[in-house]
Design a protein that fits this description.
This protein is α/β, with parallel strands linked by helices. The protein has helices at 13-31, 54-65, 86-94, 107-116, 131-145, 161-173, 189-199, 217-221, 241-247, 255-258, 281-284, 291-311, and strands at 43-48, 69-74, 99-103, 121-123, 152-156, 176-180, 211-214, 226-229, 266-269.
Amino acid sequence: MKKDILSLLDLEVADFQYLFLRAIQLKKRFNQGISDRPLIGKSVGLIFDKKSTRTRISFETAMIQLGGTPIYMSAQDTQISRSEPPQDTARALSRYLDALVIRTFDHSMVETFAKHATIPVINALTDSFHPCQILSDIMTIIEVKGGYEGKKIVWIGDGNNVANSWVNAAAMLDLELVIATPKGYEVPERVKKSSAKRRSKTALANTPSKTTFTNDPLEAIKDADVVYTDVWASMGQESEQIKREADFKGFEVNKELLSYAKSDVIVMHCLPAHRGEEISEDVLEGSHSVVWDQAENKRHMHKAILETLILKTNI
């Protein structure tokens, strides 16, 4: 049976653990000059309806380094742009490809593809979730901090798709997570409810959640081990930029705010970053920043995801 990753709630706890271990192993072997090519003769299609730098290139290089072939398709260059139903595209592409990676706006699009495709479908970002980003981010925390258990992870900024995926991850892995957003920009209730419902079906069912929500960034960041931020206006929200700059006053991750975190705190950002808005230049380029490690780890995590879903290994 095929496995899709549309949100992190599609995974079991064992799946998380396997992907973290495999991605770290693949990275170590790559840095040692060892070539792992288990996907020779396999192909993955990338349908991108949103612009991308890191996600696109990391998926493409991941597939190439595993011996397979990535095929990039702008949605505007496919029959989808001429109103072909996504279920028809999904069925046809299933006859050509071994997996499909989709980056689009409406989350229902990837759900429709997954329902009708006979190959694994991977969400490379929708307006609702960004699951592969969080998998590589937690991999980075494991590398830098030795693990995520007992670490206070603080999100400062918009309750967007990346924040939603952090809430999903916290429900499954029992992370200590604090989400700090301005009023009116909170994580949607539907995301909180679906995460709680999924948690109730795990071994954590009788364990109180360690996820808290606040509108106070200063209170949230106290004693943080990890501080994470993202742009205030995501793709498709550019018209709200000026209003959001006013609404997000006090939410910039700068040296003053960071001084309330632990002395060995790490700062994360999924990029691209707007210096002087959600994060200051000196913090982004400072000694606490691990953003470039994050960016690199997307490739290795995507290797683990592609290998695992296509070959149906341990998942």
